[in-house]
């Protein structure tokens, strides 16, 4: 005959853990877009399921902040609440990329205010390409700025770089169009929900981008735009996703400069196209050069070294055939930052045996994703 404990276990089985994707949607909604607490929550709990289970704890309140901790326990705010939403996204061809998805950009995992969930249309594999170059500038460019963006963007795309920009009017669109004309991938980062295009006049350009690249947003479909703040938040993602940032043309006080500030915060190199001293649209770029915050870029070849490009070998056809990252490659890349790290440190952080780690590092080096320095120390290209 069963005792009371066994009888209670049969009558009250433990509640099954919610699905991981639904937990990530719950956590992203609870913290809100652009939350500076995202990294703290991941550091404290490791993942969304663990955060869900600890939502009533003092540790969650300390990591997430009081407003988010209050939202975490609101009636109806549960992982299961997002099941129908996830199905609607799938039906509309919107890919949900939570933090632990293999296609989630590794570059975002290195910033404290990373989006815990991304929404994507198109092919997300380009999000982890090594030679990404941000191209930003004025929404009302001069003919000089348009030509500079077209020439630089086209030449960089042909050499194997992936152009990253904001799908906005002006020079953002010029960078995307340069890549599209060369039948090369480009990434659009939206400051509005993923099911919207702003400006609406760029809908056709967006469709062309999605055929060979992708469009991402941290704002879910079926939500309302958040106004100017959405574009300012978007700028940090352009900076984080880019190996380097090019400012083609910008006034001294403009939204473009917020992207520069983020790039500097993340330790990304900044380049600027020199312009006329008589043009208001070049005052911002010329100031960056004068103050030593940016290096001058006059032709695509000026950026080949920083992006690890080789004119003869880097072709779009080769990139199309590139194999996706393996789980071990993703694990090792997540441990390599802007500072060089040795094999022992990488082994300790990644948990991989030395032989497997060395083989993985060789693959990453051959694919152009990491650079081996003297003393077997590795750094991102």
UniProtKB/TrEMBL annotation:
Q: Which GO terms describe its biological process?
A: DNA-mediated transformation
Q: Which residues form the DprA winged helix domain?
A: 318-376
InterPro entries for this protein = DprA, DprA_WH, DrpA_SLOG, WH-like_DNA-bd_sf
**Where's the Smf/DprA SLOG domain?**
96-306
- What Pfam families does the entry give? DNA_processg_A (PF02481), WHD_DprA (PF17782)
Q: Which domain of life is it from?
A: Bacteria
Instruction: Name the family the entry cites.
Output: Belongs to the DprA/Smf family.
Name under which the protein is recorded:
DNA-protecting protein DprA
Q: Where does this protein come from, organism-wise?
A: Faecalibacterium prausnitzii
């Amino acid at each position: 005959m069963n005792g009371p404990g066994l009888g209670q276990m049969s009558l009250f089985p433990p509640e099954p853990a919610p699905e991981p994707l639904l937990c990530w949607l719950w956590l992203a909604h609870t913290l809100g877009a652009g939350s500076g607490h995202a990294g703290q929550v991941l550091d404290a709990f490791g993942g969304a399921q663990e955060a869900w289970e600890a939502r009533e704890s003092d540790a969650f309140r300390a990591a997430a902040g009081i407003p988010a901790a209050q939202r975490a326990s609101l009636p109806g705010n549960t992982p299961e609440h997002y099941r129908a939403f996830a199905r609607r996204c799938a039906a509309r061809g919107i890919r949900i990329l939570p933090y632990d998805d293999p296609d989630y950009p590794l570059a975002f995992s290195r910033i404290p205010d990373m989006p815990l969930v991304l929404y994507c249309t198109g092919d997300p594999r380009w999000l982890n390409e090594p030679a990404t170059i941000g191209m930003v500038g004025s929404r009302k460019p001069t003919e000089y700025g348009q030509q500079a963006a077209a020439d630089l963007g086209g030449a960089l795309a042909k050499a194997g770089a992936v152009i990253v920009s904001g799908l906005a009017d002006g020079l953002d669109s010029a960078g995307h169009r340069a890549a599209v004309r060369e039948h090369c991938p480009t990434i659009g980062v939206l400051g509005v929900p993923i099911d919207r295009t702003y400006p609406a006049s760029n809908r056709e350009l967006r469709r062309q981008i999605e055929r060979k690249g992708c469009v991402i947003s941290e704002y879910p479909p079926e939500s309302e735009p958040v106004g100017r703040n959405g574009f300012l938040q978007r700028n940090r993602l352009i900076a984080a996703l880019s190996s380097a940032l090019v400012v083609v043309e910008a006034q001294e006080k403009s939204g473009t400069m917020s992207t520069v500030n983020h790039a500097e915060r993340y330790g990304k190199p900044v380049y600027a196209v020199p312009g006329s001293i008589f043009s208001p649209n070049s005052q911002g770029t010329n100031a960056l050069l004068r103050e030593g915050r940016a290096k001058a870029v006059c032709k695509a070849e000026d950026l080949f070294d920083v992006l690890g490009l080789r004119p003869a070998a880097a072709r779009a056809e080769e990139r199309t055939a590139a194999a996706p990252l393996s789980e071990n490659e993703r694990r090792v890349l997540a441990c390599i930052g802007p500072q060089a790290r040795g094999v022992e440190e990488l082994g300790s952080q990644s948990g991989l045996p030395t032989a497997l780690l060395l083989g993985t590092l060789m693959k990453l080096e051959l694919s152009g994703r990491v650079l081996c320095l003297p003393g077997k120390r590795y750094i991102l290209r």
